[in-house]
Request: fold
Amino acid sequence: MTPIARKRLGKVALNAAGVLVFIFAVFPVYWMVSTSFKTNDQIFTTEFIPFPTELTLDHLHRVLTEGVAGNSIWLYMRNSAIVALGTVVIGAVFALLAATAIARFAFKGRSSFLVLLLIVQMIPAEALLIPLFLNVKRLGLYDQLLGLIVINVGLTLPFGIWMLRTFVAAVPKSLEEAAWIDGASRFTTFRKVLFPLVAPGLVATSIFSFITAWNELIFALILMSDSSGYTMPVALQFFFGQRGTDWGAIMAGSTMMTIPVVVFFLLVQRRMVTGLVAGAVKG
Reply:
């Protein structure tokens, strides 16, 4: 086999592997969406039906009109949005400030703090359930959305600090020094020079925080006793009953849950590109 043929064969194999990975990642999403439009006969059949032969909106209509646990499905969507957006905003502020301090200032225990962040990430959230539950009760945040926001910020903050620290450290100090020479204050330098350059990392951590808070189930189930405070993952659990599972409603509700995540990503993904070139000074 000639080198050119070997190179072409390698490209074909690489493209084939990429197609397989794409199918593996997209197929569950397609199956969820397609199942939400299938009739019960198509859902509970023993035959494999890749495409709905008969479309129906009954599952989506039932989820939207009947609600869950005596409440409208939009109430749970609102609760999930409040928790997720609150986690993103608060977590991004604390993560960026902490990452800037770690990357730009030398202080005693900095290396130990970074190691501690990694150790915290290794601890399963379930192991922290009881102590966090007791602390939330002690702070008077039980059965409140603010309590869920605080918990989710704590769960996502170590990852956010670690990732943003890399972005801040990659920004040359000469850019900040040039701004200082031009008379800019530290806050102005941070806002007009450093912040635009670390915006891609901030977007990445925001996406991670949003998805984590949006899909969180255990703490939302334990820390909320009133059904009006449930989030969407908790609400979907009510479709699992002793007499059977309403897969059509589950898939319809899951499809509704996916839409805000996609919209959030589309809104912030532009910042990942513009932030790469913004804030630089002419040399």
About this structure: The beta strands are 240-241, 244-245. Confidence is low (pLDDT under 50) at residues 275-283. Residues 70-281 form a domain with the MetI-like fold fold (CATH 1.10.3720.10). The CA atoms of residues 91 and 154 lie 8 Å apart.
